[in-house]
Write a structure and sequence with these properties.
This protein is of the alpha+beta class and 95 residues long. 27% of the residues lie in helices and 31% in strands.
Length: 95
Amino acid sequence: MPHRIETDRLILRSLESGDADALAAALNSPEIAKATLAIPHPYTVEHARAFINKSLNPAPDDTNLRIVVIHKESGDLIGGVSLDNFHPVYRSAEI
């Protein structure tokens, strides 16, 4: 189920298949790779497509919710967050 929240400046929404190029550009940084466990460098469009595909077609036991942050005025993908162990009934998750 897609998720979407809008503020005056930002859109927080579920990943979409068209996000691959922007996601690859945003994550293709040695600094990001050093600071995370699961993001390789270089981070390619193929990596982004696989990540998006996994997010759009989760395993039955996958309780992670992946959200991108879009700058409303420019439309640029400027960030993201993963909510792990997301539980909509209890409205809880780990960031």
